[in-house]
Amino acid sequence: MSTESVEGVDVAHVDAVLDARNAAAAVRLAGIIADAQLDTAGSPRKLPMDLFPEFPPEMVQAVWERALVVGVRAGQLMQSPRFYRDKLARLREELADAAYASMARSSDAVLSGPAAFPELHAIDDEEARGH
């Protein structure tokens, strides 16, 4: 595909702008990961433990990449479980159907919690936020 205009859109311009946005987002994401890493380690002197020198670097990288994807997705689902009710219910069912009973029970706790299904407060018609 050429970088010329497609249906009146300057593809090269769109590509450059979106690539720049992605790069800027990656820098911010790297910063928040660095902050979270230190926050969870507790002290800068504990950061070298995150290199896991006793394991092969390729294995550590593979685990790191998977954990990052899972952590980001968990954060998204945790932020607004009520918006993901159907998806969470489907995922819970898939876990249960595949005989992952413990994980299905844990998943069920998300669906049954007050944050997942806020109800109108009976007195002032405001959403109850789990309190």
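^ that was protein a. below is b, sequence first then the tokens
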Amino acid sequence: MPFANVGTRRAALLEQVWTNRPFSALCVFAFPLQERDTSRPYILPRSTLNPLNRSSAALNRADRRIEPFEPLRSSILNRATGALNTMNITIQGQPLPNMPWEERPAGCEAPLWRYSKNPVIRRDLLPTSNSIFNSAVVPFGNGFAGVFRCDDTNRRMTLHVGFSDDGLNWNINEETLKFECDNKEIGEWVYGYDPRVCRIDDRWWVTWCNGYYGPTIGMAWTQDFKTFHQVENAFLPYNRNGVLFPRKINSTGKGRDEARYAMLSRPSDTGHTAFGDIFYSESPDMEFWGHHRHVMSPAAFEESAWQCMKVGAGPTPIETSEGWLIFHHGVLHSCNGYVYAFGSALLDLDEPWRVIARSGPYLISPRELYECVGDVPNVCFPCAALHDPETGRIAVYYGCADTVTGLAFGYIPEIIEFTKRTNICTR
């Protein structure tokens, strides 16, 4: 890379800015190498420094000749400074160096970009599948496992287990997922869709929209993705989008023994709900849920129209030093029907019902053909994310037009900066 020998993190940021330089004819960013102060970006004229052929020593000589950068273009300053300010955040999770990844396309300045080979999972991957979308993926063993929504050619909503070595090429079982359940009434299958999977300690917990006199949150756990033990439904009908936190939350502050399991959900109705807020609930045992708290309502139309009708939680929240990073879908009721997009928010670590920041603009909204055309047009619906704490990389799996599965990539620090910079949360 052109920025060798200037420190790994510094070089990575320089490379990123250089690759996507809208100002490349004028300048490049550099940092005071002697002072080790990465909080003050500098700017050098291209005539003074060509990063493609200057050495680290040349960078040091040029660094001593320049003055602190005064804003010339606010958009560039916001992006570079925001990235610098979030470089020292802490991201929790297991290392995942083998996660699927594709570099940011040239000229792209968005915090999240689409996989160039989308859809990553096509609709007819199984002989009997009409569509495969809104599915959950997690690290497992030396690769990845998932629970997939596969609507069959009878148009029945079913769940299937799948495995992958690289998170891109999937082998999905043709047989539907069968749950073991001690309670015949709870274990009777009606329908299931939009699963999430969350690892807590030595178990992977599956939540899904379960048919029980209407939609509610079904729950089961597995340790091998072969045997799944179904437990009581989390809530009464009607509810959707049950998303577990990856660890217990000690919201009372009374000690570790008081920590409880936590879940986000969206109370709904029996149909295609024209409303929806996100709520938070706690449980001591994954069976009895209470301490319900309101998290987020739809935004005002004039403030953020893409999320003005209803909102719902997406993948498992990611713990960072800045708060719980979540991705949430939002719905616009347009003159041509519902439009599903998704954005991001930060929740308080100890009281996750308190919103720290919430993005005004969306991260991903229907744009590509596979997102705009399908069984349900104009839908981008996130259900899973893989991330590597060391590099800050994240890969988000999302359903496209209720037909196929898409994949998008980004950096967690950039998404946090984007969320804070575009925040519409006032409380």
